[in-house]
From TrEMBL:
Pathway: Amino-acid biosynthesis; L-phenylalanine biosynthesis; phenylpyruvate from prephenate: step 1/1. Keywords: Amino-acid biosynthesis, Aromatic amino acid biosynthesis, Lyase, Phenylalanine biosynthesis. The keyword Amino-acid biosynthesis applies. Residues 2-180 form the Prephenate dehydratase domain. GO terms for biological process: L-phenylalanine biosynthetic process. It is an enzyme of class 4 (lyase). Its EC number is 4.2.1.51. The keyword Kinase does not apply. It holds the Pfam family PDT. The lineage of its organism: Bacteria, Pseudomonadati, Bacteroidota, Flavobacteriia, Flavobacteriales. This is prephenate dehydratase. GO terms for cellular component: cytoplasm.
Length: 287
């Protein structure tokens, strides 16, 4: 099985793949952009792709919603990964001798409290957390530290100087598991749909009232700008439900009230607070 991810071995996408596919054997393919991940799945170069879609601190990654529709991909699963940022450097490095910290802008944003406390560091943005760790090891960069995962530190032989430096410890990233196509199944309790509504007062409210009427939980609604149609939007909606019958009835009801209704995926819900991994995660920081 071939899995495409954005980033390098040791990245959070790598961790998400391990968590979702568990004991299944797979080969990981590294891509430098989310677009290339989506394209690889659409061309059947990879069986599945993992793509970060939102974070509890930084919010939604809007361009990735558009990639799902642009490449006609199916969402076949989701995974919520607890994000724990570690500050790492070459073994034997003294924290007080660190002059520069490097990492992806998102990781830097999520560690703002730590970086404000130690505000004498030069901060340099990079394209990938794990790649930053890998380069520090390969280039034997002294007095430089990376913000990355424990997995990256283990893979590249770096020493953790400060643990769990993220500002908020309930920091999760949600990932979509994407495929080119999927087999029909009734074993799902969540779906992602997208639609537009007529550009007039009350049209969206009329659609959302159907969710209320049927008792369907709308877990997320995200507006996505429609290219070449200024101030018009598609709505990406994640819903969960008790029965397939509820879901089928919803589709019938909103079909006549929406434009371009499309089912992006039907899959099993993953609850971040039920992850077994959280039972032994130490969320204490040491900064």
């Amino acid at each position: 099985m071939k899995i495409g991810i954005q980033g390098t071995l040791g990245s959070y996408h790598h961790q998400a793949a391990d968590l979702f596919f568990n004991s299944e054997e797979f080969i990981l393919y590294e891509y430098e952009s989310f677009k290339k991940v989506a394209k690889s799945v659409s061309k059947s170069e990879c069986d599945f792709g993992l793509m970060a879609i939102e974070n509890t601190i930084a919010g939604s990654i809007l361009p990735n919603y558009s990639l799902v529709t642009k490449y006609n991909l199916q969402i076949v699963g989701e995974i919520y990964l607890p994000i724990q940022h570690q500050l790492m450097a070459l073994p034997g490095t003294d924290f007080d001798k660190i002059e520069e910290i490097r990492s992806h802008p998102m990781a830097i944003l999520q560690c703002d409290q730590f970086l404000e406390k130690y505000n004498h560091f030069t901060i340099r943005e990079t394209s990938d957390t794990a790649l930053t760790a890998k380069k520090i090891k390969s280039e034997l960069s002294r007095n430089i530290a990376a913000i990355a995962s424990q997995k990256a530190a283990d893979l590249y032989g770096l020493e953790i100087l400060k643990r769990n430096i993220q500002t908020f410890h309930k920091n999760f990233t949600r990932f979509f598991v994407l495929a080119k196509e999927t087999e029909p199944t009734n074993d799902f309790d969540k779906a992602s749909i997208t639609f537009a509504t007529p550009h007039k007062s009350g049209s969206l409210a009329n659609v959302l009232n159907e969710f209320v009427y049927l008792g369907i939980n709308m877990e997320k609604i995200q507006s996505i700008p429609i290219i070449e149609k200024p101030w018009q939007y598609n709505f990406h909606v994640d819903i969960s439900f008790e029965t397939i019958q509820q879901y089928e009835e919803l589709k019938k009801r909103i079909l006549i009230k929406t434009d371009n209704l499309k089912i992006l995926g039907e899959y099993k819900k993953n609850n971040p607070y039920l992850l077994k991994e959280l039972e032994y995660i130490d969320l204490k920081s040491n900064f």
